[in-house]
Amino acid sequence: MFKRILIAEDQETQNISLQKTLAELGTEKPEYVYYCDDALTWIKNAVKAERPYDLLITDLYFEEDHNQQKIDGGVELIKAAKEVQPNLKTLVFSGENRPAVIDMLFKEMHIDGYVRKARHDSQNLRLAISAIHNHKKYISPDLKQARKENNSHDFTDLDIAIIAQLVDGTPQKNIPYYLQENNIKPSGLSSIEKRLNLMKEVLGFSKTSSLLLIARISG
């Protein structure tokens, strides 16, 4: 079983529940933090000390408080952590249940497991950790069924290019020039608008700014 586990979770009750589940699995006492910035610092220090973590368990969303953070969510944390330690196993434990968001985490961030915070999540956490330890992917059964029943959005190279440009600050009207220069088709402004509207519809977003979550994943 994993020897060194880091938990990034800002809700104390969930943090305690995670630690209890890990203890029942016979893992050594995990370390935990409430902030993403702290999690990344601990990961960096662990790598520097040649005692890297085996598994990172993180939520996706963290509440803001008086401690300002450079990293404000689990998506950015996973991305930054993998830049420091590319082989770090990652398990997301979150209330997010939109198939398209979860698919993007597996496809673009290469996470190893996803467990939704819900009834029976302790059991699913045990199964997820065991599966990941055995080099397998894991997703909660209810989410797996939801993915079959819903048409998850298939993010194309065009979609990823569009949202990557948006997060870089490129005005939407200038994105066609980037697409043309990189031979990405279709490159027309109307096509860009259609893809953005489709992504927002599938993901349940009402504003383009909400796509920044996906943009962070793809960026």
3D structure, described in words:
This protein is α/β, with parallel strands linked by helices and 219 residues long. Helix content is 50%, strand content 11%. The chain has helices at residues 12-24, 36-48, 74-84, 99-108, 121-133, 141-149, 157-167, 175-181, 189-203, 212-218; strands at residues 5-8, 31-33, 55-58, 89-94, 113-116, 138-139. Strands 2-1-3-4-5-6 form a 6-stranded parallel β-sheet, with helices on both faces. Helix 5 links the parallel strand 5 and strand 6. It is globular, with a radius of gyration of 18 Å. The model has no long low-confidence stretch (mean pLDDT 84).
Q: Helix proportion of residues, in percent?
A: 40-55%
- Intertermini distance: 33 Å
CATH architecture of the largest domain: 3-Layer(aba) Sandwich
> Beta fraction of the residues?
5-15%
Give structural attributes.
6 strands, about 220 residues, alpha/beta, 6-stranded parallel β-sheet, 10 helices, Rossmann fold
